[in-house]
Specification:
Layout: E1 2-7, E2 11-17, E3 23-29, H1 33-41, E4 48-52, H2 56-63, E5 68-71, H3 74-88, E6 95-101, E7 105-111, E8 114-121, H4 125-136, H5 141-148, E9 158-159, H6 160-163, E10 176-178, H7 193-219, E11 223-227, H8 235-247, E12 251-253, H9 261-268
Parallel strand pairs: 1-4, 4-5, 6-11, 11-12
Antiparallel strand pairs: 1-2, 2-3, 6-7, 7-8, 9-10
The protein binds adenosine-5'-triphosphate and magnesium ion.
Length: 270
């Protein structure tokens, strides 16, 4: 049997096909690569391992000499996996942007069977966790995700309409004029952790969307496919991104198992 492993900055993703040809997916924290080794040892039928991701070298330190290893560079693996997952759901875009929100964010342009990385930003899943932790003390991703669904950004973010009070706004008044901008110009109050985390999600989502849209316009692509584990069960972030993308006249696309694109690509590469 063959498996694909994507050893990322935060999470190590594993993908393989079961005997019914269904994808099976699992994750490990990347700071515990020995757990990956134990898992492989418990699956003696594994013969080939496709590997990708920035922590490949660290992973190989742990699993080398175990099986036959097939390496593929991260962006190749991700795009190969994304193409597979898109086709599986019946999407065939001639041109699209692929925005991978991992620990950091990478943005790619995909056209037919070709793709290039057009840019990225350090604002990503690591920022979501890091800023949430620093501002509220909460460090657990699932707690962060859960809390933001009860949060409200209104008293922290400054919207365009908050500035242009009683006037016509030059752009959509509901757009954010300044993320966290209300705090500095109103009397200081303590904000609930839920509200702060929801606002961090807003910041992360809006920066990533704004950048993705600029590249989409440059490349004349309508669809933006958002992937990466930062979106795993993270409805709040997905909503920020979907709304912002639509407001700016582009089409957001979300697909199943998107966080495993790299692992699927590494598996397909064997
Ligand atoms: P990169 O591609 O930048 O090297 P990565 O591949 O590890 O990083 P992903 O796995 O796509 O990145 O996403 C990591 C992000 O997903 C984290 O920063 C966090 O926001 C979120 N996340 C989702 N599930 C978890 C989890 N169980 N533990 C920690 N973070 C999680
Ligand atoms: Mg990754």
């Amino acid at each position: 049997k063959a498996i694909g492993i994507d050893a990322g900055g935060t999470l190590t993703k594993v993908a393989y096909l079961d005997k019914h040809n269904e994808l099976v997916l699992t994750t490990f924290p990347s700071n515990d690569l020995l757990a990956v080794k134990d898992w492989i040892i418990k699956h003696p039928d594994i013969e080939d391992i496709g590997v990708t991701g920035g922590r490949t070298e660290q992973l190989l330190e742990v699993i080398k000499a175990m099986k036959s290893i097939h390496y593929i560079v991260e962006f190749e693996a991700t795009l190969k996996g994304v193409r597979f997952l898109l086709h599986k759901e019946g999407y065939f875009f001639e041109r699209s942007m692929i925005t991978n929100i991992g620990t950091g964010t990478s943005i790619h342009y995909m056209e037919g069977n070709t793709h290039i990385r057009v840019g990225g930003t350090g604002i990503g899943g690591g920022t979501l966790i890091g800023l949430s932790a620093l501002t509220t003390g909460i460090t657990d991703y699932n707690e962060i995700r859960e809390m933001s669904s009860h949060g409200n950004r209104e008293s922290i973010d400054l919207l365009v309409k908050d500035i242009y009070q009683g006037m016509d706004t030059p752009i959509d008044g509901h757009l954010t004029a300044s993320n966290f901008g209300k705090v500095g110009i109103t009397e200081f109050v303590n904000h609930p952790a839920e509200d702060i985390i929801a606002t961090v999600q807003g910041l992360v989502g809006e920066v990533i969307t704004t950048l993705s849209i600029q590249y989409a316009e440059e490349k004349n692509a309508q669809h933006i496919v958002y992937i990466g584990s930062t979106l795993s069960n993270n409805d709040h972030l997905a909503r920020v991104i979907a709304n912002y993308t639509r407001t700016k006249k582009h089409i957001p696309v979300f697909i199943n198992d998107h966080g495993f694109s790299g692992a699927v690509g590494a598996l397909l590469n064997i």
